[in-house]
Amino acid sequence: RQVETKYQSTMMYRKEAVSALLLLVVVVPSSFVGACPYAGNAADDANLPEDHPDVGSRPRRLGMPCLRKDAAAREHINGLLSRRAEEVKTSHGGRSLQAGGCFTRAVYNDIVDDIGLIADGLANVTDGGPRDKGHFFGGIVRLAAHDFMDFDQRPADNQGFPLGQDGCIDWNTQSGGSGADNAGLETIWCDDTAICPLKNIYDTIYRGIGVGRADFWVAAAQAVIKITSKAWTDTSGAPHADLDLPFRYGRVDNDDCEPPTVDSAHRLPGAQH
What pLDDT, in 10s, does the model give residues 107-118? Predict the structure, then answer.
């Protein structure tokens, strides 16, 4: 109940988070754009063991409540993702971005498909159904938003760390902790892939081909927007089936955004705003 209450309170500013994500695709520095479509730098920690303290700024074990309490649902979702991992690895042909491969449109589309697969699985097999699907979608957008909303370009104020979309979250989310404003995100991204399906597909598919956390979080959030958007018509009168945002790959992951190095969570706008 406490986790659900925290999560519901954070969703009060989901619209602001989505607006910030839309802004992100406009203000992304041109240095993030590589020589080929969606090309860029691999994550610095790609070869570190999963239990290394510098991987992902020590994500906590919490996971989605519906998967923690329902073994059958957990088994179903992980079975889906295991089969999907084999399918996607075959389609990627074993190419690694670290070996000169490109983050192609096909890789991006695979992420969109995977987000949809997980969401539909949650809706169909958990007791919460649509509520759990909404938790998953909203949590992904909030994760990406909290990653880049700590950006501060002012040398006098940023402690030497501009931060921004760097794949780093302060996971000290307990009450009174330095990352308390991030409470609830550990239900979406945690160190137990059996109960965090987003982390599952990252570890089993995308991390292995060199996709960093920062790029993956943004791509996943854009996938949510694409999946949940409606058909629309632009100013020229051209119809669109959904809102498919532009994306560029190459953000560099950071593994330390907690005190005493830097107080990233306190840069976030208050939920009440």
Answer: 899 999 999 999
